[in-house]
From TrEMBL:
GO terms for biological process: mitophagy. It holds the Pfam family RIMC1. This is CE051 protein.
């Protein structure tokens, strides 16, 4: 992945020197290099089991780097939205990687009971941002307008696409979102609409942009995500190896905690 990233950067440098290529090609090459190089670094963090003393800072740095391609498009005064320059797939990759990285970090951090007791606000911020990133990833191609004359054998596919599920990764993003909301409700309380800045003054600059500064309703968001996940796995994707046992257990917890 480092070699691929390096090759893309070399290619980008050559194209910039020539000055003939369309900006979207240059931005896409840069984005691909960012994805390759950060993937290597993310795997290192996972292999080391997110070291308690250093991983949070590394996490912030990686999320900052993964946000750069989109930020760069906006800063360059191109009168186009990032999706028109980078394309939906690359933007989905960037948001998936940010969300999945926070998911993996929180999966490890929630088992560190002493750390969790002292850092509930940080944990909540990580969950909140992670779910926001995954929900954003699921939104880029939605709502998809489907033709009314979709043939009968395509109904299952049409349902998947209308839910924003284009790949296995999209479905996994739903499950991850629901699971992170479950951790939030279990370890941080209800997590309704208060500003996270009031809990953690530096949170806004810690892990992402101001769009993540409003706290999610973990219960409602988690229930919605997991309900969709179960419906899809037991509907159009029934018999394709997707397990719903854990999702149903978490859904029961959401219902019980609401009551």
């Amino acid at each position: 992945f480092l070699a691929k990233g390096s090759a893309n950067l070399d290619k980008l440098k050559d194209l910039c020197n020539e000055g003939k290529e369309h900006p979207s090609t240059l931005f896409q090459l840069y984005t691909q290099a960012v994805l390759d190089i950060t993937y290597f670094e993310e795997n290192q963090l996972v292999d080391e089991d997110f070291p308690e003393e250093s991983s949070l800072q590394k996490l912030k740095e990686l999320i900052c780097v993964l946000s750069e391609p989109e930020d760069l498009v906006r800063e360059c005064s191109i009168k186009e939205e990032p999706i028109n320059i980078l394309g939906a797939e690359l933007l989905e990759c960037l948001y998936w990687r940010k969300g999945a990285l926070l998911y993996m970090y929180c999966h490890t951090a929630k088992e560190r009971s002493e750390w969790l007791q002292e850092n509930v606000a940080t944990f909540k911020k990580c969950l909140n941002d992670g779910v926001h990133y995954l929900m954003k990833m699921l939104s880029f191609r939605c709502p998809l307008q489907l033709d009314e004359d979709v043939s009968l054998q395509d109904k299952d596919t049409a349902r998947l696409l209308s839910e924003g599920i284009f790949t296995d990764t999209h479905l996994l993003a739903m499950m991850y979102s629901g699971e992170m909301c479950y951790w939030g409700l279990k370890h941080c309380g209800e997590g309704k609409q208060e500003s996270l800045e009031s809990i953690h003054p530096a949170s806004n600059s810690d892990l992402g942009s101001s769009s993540q500064s409003i706290s999610l309703d973990f219960q409602e968001t988690g229930r919605n995500m997991l309900t969709k996940y179960v419906a899809v796995c037991e509907g159009p994707l029934k018999g394709h190896g997707w397990n719903t046992t854990t999702a149903k257990q978490m859904l029961r917890y959401f219902v019980e905690s609401h009551n």
